[in-house]
Amino acid sequence: MMTRKTIRWIVAELRVLANIEDPTEYGRSKDRLLERTLPVLSQSKQTAPLATVMKNSLTTDLRMPKRGETAITDARNRIDELVRMLHGLTRSVIPVAFLALLCMVGGIIAVVVFGRMLETSRESGHWPWVTGYLLKSRVERHTSSVVGRYGSRMTESTSYDLYVEYRYHVDSKEYRGHTFSFEPRSVDREYWEAKARLYPPNSAVRVYYDSERPGISVLEPGTHDINYIFILLGLVFTGTGVYLAAKPIRFLFL
User: Fold this and answer.
1) What is the pTM (predicted TM-score) of this model?
2) How far is CA 91 from CA 85, 98, 187, 252, in A?
């Protein structure tokens, strides 16, 4: 299995080879190195091309001096190039590890957030209600932008939901709420506009509240199927992150 430890070992062996002055000894050491390293590099699709490059580079006969460059110096230059390629292989793992981390963190956050929302929405179906007064009601537009690579392109997404503000009393104490439902935002503006027409400002509304925490309330209680979809997507992202992280973790730490 190709790991960072293996890469370090190959680099160390190449540096030892580069310090050999005698061409005959260089040739013997080079053959031993290729015999040990080529099978290891050939095991992985990612490093198989490097195995071919190493074989072609090191098995080339030491060339005659050219423009003042000795054969040993020429061999050392080829070894230095191989070392740079091996270091580049190590650095190439970092973007994959970063992407895996983003997937895992984003997936876990989605599962936690929508899991709690789902739990609360289930409980809200059994909450008591009181008559409240709707102060504000309007459809809100939300936009988010993602800048493309090197800032060359920007992608904008738009979603909508219903903003509400209402007041209600529980045990002679006044509360104010802003939660319309436990349904996430969506791109369907007409859907939310239809909801807004059912809840005009300055009208009486039913306010469902948590009897243990009266400050938590909602106008439309109950669960929504889309919450399950978001939880599923969160699990998919988490699983994808774990899958993507497996190879970098083995590479970097084993």
Assistant:
1) 0.53
2) 10, 12, 40, 10
